[in-house]
Please model this.
Amino acid sequence: MGEVLVWAVWLLAAGGCLGSGLAVVSLQNPFYSALALIANLASLAVLYLLLAAEFLAAAQVLVYAGAVMVMFLFVIAYLGGRADAPWAGGPALLRAAALVAAAALLAEVVVVLGLAWGDRLAEPAEVSAAFGSPASIGELFLTDHLLAFEITSIVLLVAAVGGVVLGTARERERETR
Amino acid sequence: MVAGAWFCLLAPLAGALAITLAGERISRRQAGLVSTLTTFAAFGGALVAFVAMWAREGAEREQLSTAYTWLAAGDFEVGLQILVDPLSAVMMLVVSGVGGLIVWYSLGYMAGDDEERRYFAYMSLFVFSMLLLVEAGNLLLLLVGWGLVGLASYLLIGFWHHRPEAVAAAKKAFVMNAIGDATFALGLVLLVWQARTLELPAVLEEADGLSGTIVTLVALGLLGGALAKSAQLPLHTWLPDAMEGPTPVSALIHAATMVTAGVYLLVRAHPIFEAAPDVQHLAAGLGAATLLLAGLVALVQWDIKRVIAYSTMSQIGYMFLAAGIGAYGFAIFHLVTHAFFKALLFLAAGVVIHHLAGEQDIRRMGGLRAALPRTHVAFLVGTAALVGLPPLAGFWSKDAILASALASGGALGWTLFSAGLLGALLTGAYAFRLYYAVFHGAPPEVSPEPHGPEAAHEPAHGEGPLSMLVPVGALTVLSTLGGLLSVPGVWHPFTHWVSETAEALVEPSTGEDYLTSLVAVTLGLAGLWLARRAFASGRQLVTSPVAWRALEHKLYFDELYDALFYRPAAALAGALRREVEEPVVERSLDELGAGTLELGGGVARVQSGLLRTYALAVALAVFVLVLVFVAVR
Amino acid sequence: MIPTPKVDWLALSPTLALLGASGVALLAAVLVPEWMRKAVAAGTALAGFVLAALLAGVVFDRSPDPQALLSESMTRDRLAALAQVILALVGAAVVLLSWEERRRGSHAEYYALLAAAGAGMVFFVGAGNLMTLFLGLEWFSLSLYVLVAIDTERADSLEAGLKYVIVGGFGSAVLLFGSALVYGATGVLGFAQIAAAGAEGDALLLAGLAMILAGLAFKVSAAPFHMWTPDVYQGAPTSLTAFMSAATKTAAMVVTLRVLVTAFPADSDLWTVALGVLAAASLAWGNLGALAQRDVKRLLAYSSISHAGFLLIAVAAASERGGEALLYYLVPYSAMSVGAFAVVAARERELARPVTLDSLAGLGWERPFYGVALWVFMLGMAGFPLTGGLFGKLFAFSAAYDAGDAWLVLVGVAATLVSLAYYLNVVRWLYMRPGPELRAAPVVGGAPPRDPALAVTVGAALAVTVGSFVLAQPLLDLASAAAASLPF
Amino acid sequence: MLTTALIVLPVAGALLVAALPLTRVGSAGLAFLVALLEVGLWVVAAARFDFDAGGLQLGTTREWVESLGISYAVGFYGFSLWLAGAAVIVFAAAIGYALWAGRDRPRAYHALMLFLTGAVVATFAAQDVLLFYVAFEAMLIPLYVLVGVWGGERRLVATLTFVVYTMAGSLLMLAAVVAFGVTQGTFSLAGSGTSDNTWIFLGFAVAFAIKAPLFPFHGWLPLAYRQAPVEVAAVLSAIVSKTAIYGFLRIALPKFPEPADELSVVILLLAGAGLVYGSLLAFRAPDLRGIVAYSSLAQMGLITLGVFAVDDLGLDGAVLQSVNHALVSASLFLLVGMVERRCGTGDLAALGGMARGRPVLATVLLVAGMIALAVPGSTTFAGEFLIMAGVYGQGWGYAAIVAVGIVLAAMYTLRLISAVLHVRPGPAVREETLDLRPGELALVLPLVVCLLGLSAWPALVSQSSFPGNDPVRALAEELG
Amino acid sequence: MSGPGIGWYLIVAALLFGTGALGVMLRRSPLIVLLSLELMLNAANLTLIAFARQHGSLDGQVFALAVMAVAAAEVAIGLGLIVAMARRGLPLDVDQASSLRG
Model:
């Protein structure tokens, strides 16, 4: 792929990513926000691809945008109009402070990156084609990161139980009564 | 000798303890008997000691006896010890002898008071304390006795504690004496640091070796104690008020013994005062000033006991004068004769008061010569002895002091001599004013109702029971003959005896003696004449109203001290309470606490419950943390 | 063929015991009939916690030398083992404490999640790289999120849950981003590898360190990352509050110590100061905030914030002595905390409403055992003698003084002074309110509801609180063996 | 072992009293019995104590926290044995008074009193800085409740002020203990050397100054002494305050010779100021307890003067005076309590004239009062004289202050005596108001008899307080 | 590697992280706050993947994969909570969830 094309794709993806991110934060309706997040996830997947993380890109789209966001949209739909909270509120000072804090944090991270720009971030390592492939990831998950893999599953299980407990508790109450 | 002295010391203590512990198990009369007998037992002990000492010679007459170590700290030790020497032997005899007579007298005088037991316990305590004072083998023990007589004095002045005046007078006496005790103690502290001991002969021997400043300070400290105890200027104001106590108390404590303790101290510690001649002269000067002041004030008093009290101050002034110029033997001699005749006067006055059911105002007395013939004689003897008419006791001792002043010469000597003579005139005047007012003239028109501090007594006792008469008689004899122990140009056994302990600095010649006597007796008689003339014409001795008022207010010393010390102290205490204690010390914590609580409230308000602020706090904190980490790098 | 890695099952056994208990309890929710569901679940959880404690004890015994397992995924050492023992015992106590808790259903789920949270913590303290660190943290956090909100019939419980999820998620994201930066600076995830990467002073590493620190400080409730604590503690079921205050703090503290010492030793001059400042801030904020509280759970929450400060003083010493002090202090602290919340729970169940200070009035006289116990816990937290609280503070201060942080000692002392005002206020309410006020307290009267399990918990906490004072040395020996497994 | 027994006996008694479901009289009586046993045990200890020998006696040492050098080390020196003796006697009287007065909730009350006894004895016996701190703080636990539950109307404020004040000092001391122990490598008093760190010294000194209390750290005193149950006030002023003196003598002076020397001027000035200040306030106090309380402040100033004279006379005097003040203050507070029980008030304006018809009360109060004002010949006089003589070495001004204190003491004590006993009966004194009952007399009389006995022989205490009767050397060599 | 350097990816990640943080701090709807949290986690993921590429080590990618699962778990619990609140009739507004305060 040509350099220019890569840049163009990058710009498009990065722009989409940031734009959709802003949309998530700024849109009034949670439904649209959720849709914006899907766009965000998709553009992130493109960036992952550019970073030689094919498997992750795929997972991002399938698992995240596919499964998680569907759940999200489902809940929003379930809640209907009740999901509409005022856009923002509270004291103006609080809003300003939030903006300032976010901006400051952002600027800081950028500065830190800038400090590292010259040496560390100059030249990325050479990687083989297998880098980021499902096989390589899978091997790691079965060797070095076996525990992480297992725990991830436990975390998901806990979350599932939690979701059930919280989401269905009321029905159960009714039963016991 | 030593055994007698110990017995003399402990017998009254045993009496006091016995009465206290027995409580209501013994009758009031038995309590009185216990007290009287133990005091006479003490006198017996003193006699034994005296006789044993008489049989010895020179240095053998002085003996220090230690029972045990009373107080010890580091290498500093103070024993419970007594010093038996000619001086203390004389004092023991006087204290226990006169004390015994007065306690005996009290048997009759106090009969009927519902707290007799307490009275006799206190009396015995006093006799013990006074004996401890005069027998003490070291200065700290002397101070102990010193303080304990003050305590006994407090207790007895305030004996009728339902009377506010008595309580106030007792407190005043105690506090004044506490001031003296404090300076005394300060003096001792200096001695401890210099000499590392307070044992009597030893510490006095060290006096010469001390630096001038130190010894002056020590002497000042002791003098402070002496002034307070002996009611000399400027610590004299308590004594007249002390007359709130029962009359025998006035006789024993505030005339015969305790108040003369200052003189004893001056004589006892004479090496220290001799090493600090300025202080010694100061003592003489203050004595002279007191004798004049007291004599003047006595001219205008109406209370029979107060007149005698002022005369006591005045007479002690003579003794101070004597001790101040180094005439130790005569100082003690006058102390002894004064003990006789002043006790006599008080006891006689007691008979009068007893007879009049507690009346003390001489304006409501008169013509008692007929009702109380024997008392009249006794009182007259006492008065004459006080004025110094020959051949009574006071004549010999007082004139010897004046002669010594003359003999010491110099500006000081002459000043003191003149003051003493003037005092003799005043003495004659006030003493006979009192005598005439009480025993001559017309009796008061109304028979007095019981009132006054001693109102408990039933009226019209006459001259009272035997227990009152015998002591008065004994003292009359002593007042008459006591002076013969030292007759100028003939013999001086008394002063010779005392000089073994305290060698006199001046020795008047026989000529000086007789000259002085002539002048003094003349002046005394002049005073008598003044008093008689004034009495006959119904006028007062002091005619100027301004002077009268000033003297009636005792020259405003009470008011002055009140304004100078008491009120500022009370105001300071009040101000500290209002301005420091309550607002600063007590409330500072409150304010600090309130401030902290307010801070806590502020913290709680920040914890607004708003989720977004929590995230905001985290974000800001992360920002700061990262910033610091990266920047500090 | 991918070679199967060798797994140290013993090191994992405490985790597995709890995980197993959690699973059994979860199955009970479905398979066991309603009437014995709670008993089975609670019994399983209790057994799991006790077993975990025993197994951790075995691990402690058999791990004199620290060992990195599975390419630094986790560490088997005495530090982890001791922390696991504490965590498991706290869990067991909480199971007993929660037995009589009012709850509409969800009993089995409650115990399953409790065991799961315990398993997460037990794993977390042995984490060996940034990934297991993050995952372990999320593991127990997610369990706790659910547990906090499990009483869905109480609005407070839900509100607490929501706050915990969102602020907790925010904190996790910060921790994660920091981990990413550290990974960026070094290219590795394992703690020892990070230390060996030689990236000290690198801006990326330091920014990452700061963010990791923030994320962990969030979990230990150190100011200014503490703000969720009072709300969540107040809203959560009381038994769970007890668990969080003792166990979460223990786990997070131990891991903070481990991460900082093993992964960032070269930057210790930075993080010690930072921890000192966080400690001071926690002390100030926690103690001042507690002054204004009426609700006892909330008051204890602030007290827990201030204790984060005391514990951080020990961590900030960055020395073996500090590690000892931390591990020692965690024992009496956990006991006092669990015990205090247990007494609150007892009162809560008696009165059937949230416990405020005035509803403590007269408790000391009516229920002497709980009264004395709460009294002792309060005194212990204030650092009075005859409780391990004194030695905890003493050791922490000693470590700080030894490390040259005399100022932290003074801050700690000042904070203790302020803390007296509210600890003693509790005692005051227990014993000293005048008669009329006593009657005003809504006393049910008669015998208290029988709750032997809770009484056992309180008794055990009392025993540990006092026992850790008398037998300080044996406990300190354990702590020092644990601290020795870190490369100070 | 004997020392440990002295500590354990009351604590065990406390547990027993708390645990046994006895009647009101039963538990109070049991507590009183334990307190008497404790006195007996102390007598045994004193009999076994060799006052001529040097060094620590009746000691026990057990390792406690080896890694930090903390040990359970207890034992007595002469001065601490005397202080402990005063403590057990006063506690017996106080517990007896509580038995007599019939305190509510007797099991809790007496258990706390006994626990306090144990803590106090442990404080006096402690030979390890941390153990000292532990015991010092342990005293606060019962005191807080004793004042807060059984105190007067404003007891809640009083108890909080008291605890916060004293804890402020104690916590500074904790910081100092930490610093001392860490720098020395051990907390044992016997095993550690001296330190020249002024800050550590200050930590200790401030704690003791608050506990004593010394001016101006006495903000807690007026309220606590007025609001506490009277026997607790007695214990506070008589005994608890002396733990500060023990601290000065055992820790602050010998362990910090240089800082103590440098700062002695400040402490002496504060002590002197406190002596005068307390005396003046006692003179203006409107109630009985106020007088006794502020006189306590003055006396603690005086004792501190003696301690910081750092001189044979001053040190011996301070110990003697500590014992004296313990007995005097306890007697006075108990008598105040008896008067208050009769009249329902301690307001001076409402009292008076109680001497007439109540000879026992009058005699006992008079004797106690006279000893309190240090009438010459009393043991208090001996103590004051030694202190005065000792502190003269630090400057004549201090001795002069002591002299002023003597005069002021006479003023306020006489005021107290007169206000109760003399002149007309006050509105609160009725004709039928009783004299002291035999039971009450039996509580106060032993204290007064002890005082009279000491007056006959103050050297008993003063010459046996320090090994070899050489305080300065003992401080430098044996205690340092 | 062609195209923009790793730094640029990181800048994007930082911006995304900031945006997410802003959302958490600004928005009142708990749903949108949850979405914003997802943004933050994804920003971290991007960082991890970028660094993985930089170092040529797959650890970062594995980590990112795990984070995805965690993010999903968080969402599940968050949504469960929101549903429970909605059923309980509580307002879906984080500002109104402030009865616990002080």
